[in-house]
Amino acid sequence: MTLLVAIAREGFGKYWTVLDLPLDLTLDQLHSRGKTFEDVEEELGLPRGWSGGVSDEMRLHLLKQYSHTEIEHLARQYPEQLSVPPPASPVAASHE
Predict the structure, then answer these.
(1) How far apart are CA 10 and CA 36, in angstroms?
(2) Backbone conformation region of residue 35, classed left if phi is above 0, alpha if psi is from -120 to 50, else beta
(3) 14: three-class secondary structure by DSSP
(4) What CA–CA distance (Å, rounded) separates 12 from 25?
(5) What is the rounded CA–CA span in Å between residue 22 and residue 37?
(6) Domain limits, the chain
(7) What digits encode the pLDDT tens for the residues 29-68?
(8) For the chain, first and last CA: distance in Å?
(9) Mean pLDDT throughout 70-87?
(10) 72 Cα distance to chain centroid
């Protein structure tokens, strides 16, 4: 399970920049990251403008809640740091 959590955490960190938005994230911080509400919505798989029609503060609140995953909870439950070894080089394997 620890290996699965490590793989999931690495994948989340590498491919999704808006998963688990900090609960104390401000509008200014979101914009300083170069992100718009629509960028966040799109990255989460939502249609652009999904959170529209409410105040900016409410939009940010909705997106922070929607972006929440259980990866940090799982990482605390399975704290051992494992790294996935790189695949063996085909050249090295042919000399063995």
Answers:
(1) 24
(2) beta
(3) helix
(4) 19
(5) 15
(6) 2-94
(7) 999 989 999 999 998 889 999 999 999 999 999 999 988 8
(8) 32
(9) 65
(10) 10
